[in-house]
Specification:
mainly alpha; Endonuclease III, domain 1; single chain; elongated; binds iron/sulfur cluster; Endonuclease Iii, domain 2
């Protein structure tokens, strides 16, 4: 069947168009409402929700590195770089039997310690660091591990992560947030930071977390990273924060995924 052509009707010459009817006023989008529902991963309520669930799941968590004093914790933390706490805990009993004090370790050469530290990896550098840190503690701090960030950072092999571990876990001072591989990965998955280097991640976490939670948060996230929020194939179906986590690499989800929430 042929399709009828349509032509646009022309207005007769000389006649003016009737005035257009006023269009009904469009209602403007309610910006207040829109911003109120916009997702904010750093909203205090959400952050508190995460903290509460971590408290419930991981109550009374402690540092997993075995130690009897601040110096042992410092040495164990230096050795834990790129190594599991389990392996460090295997190495330190024999090490502290041979070198029971900062003075004893300061009197050794790095080469003497290397065979003991070999299982922890990067043992040459670690041997230099632990001997150097012990010497500095003996020479500059009367054999006592200092309890201030600035002073700890003067010790060879000690950066903010190690200093935060010692200050938080031994001295009970929450002056920063420990950012290890688990805190790094999970803080990004939870959109608590977009930074990708430990220094900036720590600064972001210090802004968003209440200060009294700085020590516990790291311990809990480290446990969470080992138990459920593992690097490959996190166990999201068992996770207590699943319905407020939008991580891009979730293995199971009841909420929408945010592509940028990557580890
Ligand atoms: S839901 Fe999955 S990705 Fe998110 S915190 Fe839990 S285990 Fe990690």
């Amino acid at each position: 069947m042929p399709v009828a052509k349509t032509s646009r009707a022309k207005a007769p010459a000389g006649k003016t168009k009737p005035p257009a009817k006023a269009a009904p006023a469009k209602s403007k989008p309610d910006k207040t409402k829109a911003s109120a529902v916009r997702y904010d991963p750093l909203a205090p309520q959400r952050v508190q929700d995460i903290l509460n669930r971590l408290d419930q799941r991981y109550p009374n968590v402690r540092c997993a590195l075995h130690h009897n004093n601040a110096w042992e914790l410092l040495i164990a933390t230096i050795l834990s770089a790129q190594c599991t706490d389990v392996m460090v805990n295997k190495v330190t009993p024999g090490l502290f039997q041979k070198y029971p004090t900062p003075q004893a370790m300061a009197a050794a050469t790095p080469e003497q310690l290397e065979p003991d530290l070999r299982p922890t990896g990067f043992y040459r550098n670690k041997a230099k660091s632990v001997v150097g840190a012990s010497k500095a503690i003996v020479e500059n701090f009367g054999g006592q591990v200092p309890d201030e960030m600035d002073k700890l950072l003067t010790l060879p092999g000690v950066a903010r992560k190690t200093a935060n571990v010692v200050l938080g876990s031994w001295f009970g001072k929450g002056v920063g947030v420990v950012v290890d591989t688990h805190v790094h990965r999970i803080s990004r998955r939870l959109e608590l930071t977009k930074a990708d280097d430990p220094k900036n991640i720590e600064q972001d976490l210090m802004k968003v977390l209440p200060q009294p939670k700085w020590i516990d948060f790291s311990h809990q996230i480290i446990h969470h990273g080992r138990a459920l929020c593992i690097a490959r194939r996190p166990k999201c179906a068992e996770c207590p924060i699943e319905n407020i986590c939008h991580a891009a690499d979730k293995t199971w989800s009841t909420v929408e995924i945010h592509k940028a929430a990557k580890p």
